[in-house]
């Protein structure tokens, strides 16, 4: 399936991990609608690993665990669709999934047909227990073709953690997004390291096939399956802004049934989501990337720009955004007319060497800007 902009939704792994079940998924679907997530653009509800029995049936089909999913997957898919949402499921290119449930190696066309019969709209496809003699690109291409052979429009979400230089070949397999890093955990360093590891690779991301830097940890507050200490509200805000700045898929990972109002506000921030969903899906131009301080410029549609200034340090800092490093020479006579998208404040013109003072720890500024004559 082709998408012009990155997909948005919710995935079960961060919150519930191995205990995923029908009640949680139904309640989450309800909350997606009731708490305004669907209206903000989050449409996919994705069940991750651990949904099936440990063995295929006699006919070679994967069977949903009847204790976890008593109504069965088709009824669940119908319920999710009845809410105006889309339904995603999970498998893996190896002989087992990462949590050791049956996976799709050599069963690709059978499993794809079963998934299509259930009515899925999205398949996350992991990379565990992959036979070492099989190149990942062949297995991702195989499942992509198996999904297409069903005739159902299914977004194929490849999850190979950035192995085998995935960014160089994944678009050629027809995948719609690709995980480029190892798993995120609920700490700021985890999110920051994942982000920075991709800073030179976002150029491979674009319409049709997006670099997926993993599910969001905003609102997890050290609960759930990936808890490792949690983040402060400022750190969650920066994490979300970073993901939006680079047009990553936005898959919420927290338990949105019990999410606090501040997290809802953050995750449904229209300005940040508009950045994520900008139609041109351009990668950031890296202006500065020094340890602790990153300044990014991004070309947006309609002749606009986004400027992101991020203080990753846990102390106050002043940041000089030397836009000469982006090509804006002192003599050119142009500067960026900036509006802070987080406060709505119109800040006026920043020229080639503007100073952003008094950045608090983990402080950031994100502007929407136009290039104007000074
Ligand atoms: C891998 C993936 C995770 C999650 C787990 C499930 O680690 O990268 O996102 O799907 O498997 O077991």
Say what the CATH topology of the largest domain is: TIM Barrel
% residues in beta strands = 15-25%
Q: How far do the termini sit from each other?
A: 45 Å
CATH class of the largest domain: Alpha Beta
What is the helix fraction of residues, given as a range? 25-40%
Largest sheet: 8 strands, parallel
Mean pLDDT across the residues is 96
Structural class: alpha/beta
Q: Largest sheet, order of strands side by side?
A: 7-6-5-4-3-2-1-8
Structure in a nutshell:
This protein has 374 residues and is an alpha/beta fold. The protein has helices spanning 13-16, 22-34, 37-40, 73-82, 108-118, 136-149, 166-169, 188-197, 233-245, 261-267, 270-276, and strands at 8-11, 44-46, 86-92, 122-126, 155-159, 177-179, 210-212, 250-252, 285-290, 293-299, 305-311, 317-322, 334-340, 346-350, 353-359, 364-373. Alpha-D-galactopyranose binds next to loops.
Strands, helices and their partners?
Elements: E1 8-11, H1 13-16, H2 22-34, H3 37-40, E2 44-46, H4 73-82, E3 86-92, H5 108-118, E4 122-126, H6 136-149, E5 155-159, H7 166-169, E6 177-179, H8 188-197, E7 210-212, H9 233-245, E8 250-252, H10 261-267, H11 270-276, E9 285-290, E10 293-299, E11 305-311, E12 317-322, E13 334-340, E14 346-350, E15 353-359, E16 364-373
Helix pairs in contact: 5-6, 8-9, 9-11
The chain binds alpha-D-galactopyranose.
Alpha-D-galactopyranose is lined by residues 13, 48-49, 97-99, 126, 159, 161, 183.
């Amino acid at each position: 399936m082709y998408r012009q902009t990155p997909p948005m939704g919710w995935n079960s792994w961060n919150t519930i991990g191995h205990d995923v079940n029908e009640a949680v998924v139904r309640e989450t679907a309800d909350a997606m609608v009731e708490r305004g997530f669907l209206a903000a653009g989050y449409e996919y509800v994705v069940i991750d690993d651990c949904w099936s029995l440990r063995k295929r049936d006699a006919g070679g089909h994967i069977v949903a665990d009847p204790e976890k999913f008593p109504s069965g997957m088709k009824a669940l898919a119908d319920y999710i669709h009845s809410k105006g949402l889309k339904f995603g499921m999970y498998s893996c290119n190896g002989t087992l999934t990462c949590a050791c449930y049956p996976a799709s190696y050599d069963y690709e066309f059978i499993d794809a047909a079963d998934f299509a019969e259930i009515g899925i709209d999205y398949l996350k496809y992991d990379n565990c227990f992959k036979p070492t003699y099989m190149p990942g690109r062949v297995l991702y291409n195989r499942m992509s073709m198996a999904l297409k052979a069903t005739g159902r429009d299914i977004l194929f979400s490849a999850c190979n953690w950035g192995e085998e230089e995935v960014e160089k070949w994944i678009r050629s397999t027809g995948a719609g997004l690709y995980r480029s890093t190892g798993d995120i955990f609920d700490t700021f360093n985890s999110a920051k390291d994942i982000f920075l590891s991709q800073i030179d690779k976002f150029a491979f991301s674009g319409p049709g096939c997006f670099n997926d830097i993993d599910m969001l940890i905003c609102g997890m507050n050290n609960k759930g399956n990936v808890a490792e200490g949690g983040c402060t509200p400022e750190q969650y805000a920066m994490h979300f802004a970073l993901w939006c700045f680079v047009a990553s898929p936005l898959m919420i990972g927290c338990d949105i049934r019990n999410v606090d109002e501040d997290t809802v506000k953050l995750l449904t921030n229209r300005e940040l989501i508009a950045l994520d969903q900008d139609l041109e899906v351009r990668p950031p131009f890296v202006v500065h990337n020094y340890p602790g301080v990153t300044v990014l410029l991004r070309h947006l549609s309609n002749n606009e720009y986004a400027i992101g200034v991020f203080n990753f340090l846990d102390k106050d800092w002043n940041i000089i955004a030397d836009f000469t490093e982006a090509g804006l020479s002192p003599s050119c006579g142009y500067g960026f007319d900036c509006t802070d998208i987080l406060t709505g404040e119109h800040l006026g013109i920043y020229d080639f060497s503007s100073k952003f003072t008094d950045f608090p720890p983990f402080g950031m500024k994100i502007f929407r800007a136009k290039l104007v004559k000074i």
